[in-house]
Amino acid sequence: MEINSNTKLYGLIGHPVEHSLSPLIHNYAFKSLNLNCVYTVFDVLPEKLEDAVNGVKSLGIKGVNVTVPHKEKIIKYLDVVSEEALKIGAVNTVVNEEGILKGYNTDVYGFIDSLTEVGKKIEGRKAVVLGAGGASKAVCVALALKGIDSIIIANRSVERAKDLSEYIKKEFKIQCDYCSINEVKELPEIDILVNTTSVGMYPNTEDSPADEKVVLKAKFVYDLIYNPFETALLKHAKKNGIKYSNGLSMLVNQANYSFKLWTGGFFDKNLVYRYLKEGIT
Ligand code: ATR
Fold it and tell me: At which positions is shikimate bound (predicted)?
């Protein structure tokens, strides 16, 4: 489809943004559905966020995704924010409806779908979540919504783990404990181990947020990282025959919910997976 005066513009607001896969996903999806839309990235420094949001409005940009470090701070500049996004305290998708900016969070349902894809039952299970930042919050909310029995949040900064665990307990009335990330090795058994920290991400691909002994206690390991596809943590799981999954599915699923908010319909997930796997490897 040729870019012309009817082309609708979408994008990603973040800093940094140059390694994002979102333009690949959305532009491929627009093309495959013959939609006259384009998705690009906007590298926005923290002090320019308000200007950028005003720019979205004044230029008539139809929608944006929001990533680190703006997900929380953007809320105060939006006109309407969904209940979920308010609950998580973070927005990752903005829809510009004729000048009214509406904020949503599609990370929670993106994560739920990615667990469903690998046939993971969540009800009644015990999860250990590594990390206590924004991504961890979305994962914990998703697990709680899907009926997890209990969560242990393990983080380098114990104070942050404590705050998040108190929030989850209060909001969802489930058992949610916390510990230092170094204490995970003392836990007896783990049904689902989720890494939400940036440890192991390119270029530090040798690093792992938990060692092999910890992974051995897990029945399933999910790493939110997708660059590399197989982190050191996932290699531990693979080596020991433990089921695992990387963050590509959450990325694609959350993108699909954003796509639906913008266009009214979903894209074909399997086509997009195939395209990404061929394109990246
Ligand atoms: P996000 O929105 O992606 O979750 P974030 O809020 O910056 O980003 O959180 C990053 C997470 O990775 C945090 O849990 C952080 O631990 P701290 O809260 O102690 O900072 C974790 N993290 C980042 N680098 C780490 C490292 N080298 N070792 C252990 N944890 C790390």
Answer: 20-22, 67, 92, 107, 226, 254
Look at residue 27 and tell me whether its pLDDT is greater than 90.
Answer: yes
- CA 7 / ligand 1 centre spacing (Å): 38
Distance 131 CA to ligand 1 centre (A): 6
Q: For the chain, what percentages of helix, strand and coil (3-state, to nearest 5) are there?
A: 45, 20, 35
| Angle, in degrees to the nearest 10, between helices 134-145 and 107-117 | 60
Ligand 1, residues at Cβ distance < 6 Å: 68, 131-136, 155-157, 160, 181, 196-199
Angle between helices 248-263 and 269-280 in degrees, nearest 10: 130
Domain boundaries, the chain: 8-105+251-280, 108-246
pLDDT tens-digit readout, 178-216? 999 999 999 988 999 999 999 999 999 999 999 999 999
Q: Which two tokens stand for residue 135?
A: 């991504």
Report how far residue 75's alpha carbon sits from residue 108's, in angstroms, rounded to the nearest whole number: 17
Please tell us whether the domain made up of 108-246 is placed in CATH 1.10.340.30. no
Active-site hit among 31, 62, 71, 169: 71
ipTM of the complex model: 0.98
Residue 280 banded pLDDT, cuts 50, 70, 90? low
Does pLDDT of 150 surpass 60?
A: yes
Single pTM value for the model: 0.92
